[in-house]
Specification:
single chain, alpha/beta, Rossmann fold, 4-stranded parallel beta sheet, 8 helices, 41% helix, 15% strand, globular, binds [(4R)-2,5-dioxoimidazolidin-4-yl]acetic acid, Iso_Racemase_Enz_sf, amino-acid racemase activity, Asp/Glu/hydantoin_racemase
Amino acid sequence: MRIKVINPNTTASMTQTIVAAAKAAAAPGTEIVGATSPTGPVSIEGHYDEAVSVIGLLEEIRAGEREGCDGYVIACFGDPGLLAAREAARGPVLGIAEAAMHAASFVATGFSVVTTLGRTRIIAEHLVHAYGMERHCRRVRATELAVLELEDPASDARRKIVDECRRALDEDGSGAIVLGCGGMADLARDLTHELGVPVIDGVGVAVKFIEALAGLGINTSKRGDLAFPLPKPYTGMLAGMAFRSK
Ligand code: 5HY
């Protein structure tokens, strides 16, 4: 099985962190193909960044269809372009927010999300509602760390994340933590041990969920809204994004 793990921001070093977590989770025989978006923002920290990042993401999905990929992981906590990616793909496509929230709901009656900047909190809160996780998500918390500070040793990121996780466990009545950024993927196992509760990274979970779905031959439905996009002319700088009939 070949699973493509796509980092929708353009920071290749963050893709390395994400791919390492995906490979650590993958079963023997599962090939992980890592990809960094070829165009767009170095980090996604708001609605505009997210909207622009979707083009590069869809380019990687379309390339994956040519490369014979069986499934896809969107490794950004806003799950940007998830439904558009499902239209373009035959196999299952999972966003790390959706995957992590569902996994958390299997192991705790309440979880908190710990994410980066406060301005992105609303994006995660919208996803909590979109995925029907209101009854499980106690709170979305921000560390006020910029996404790229996660890679900066001088930012003291790990301590700030641990402190926010502890506040979530003490104040929100949560039994699990969902890490709110692909760039935090390398922290899950370590923080689970340190905090004594499930600390969930959506990259690893999404890989396992796709192995389960694709392994059972469960692909994205091509009936209705997730059918392949209708072939039509596109004009201007995105003319090449037009779909041709299958
Ligand atoms: C992410 N941004 O996972 C999100 C995190 C966030 O570039 N990768 C990003 O802050 O929403």
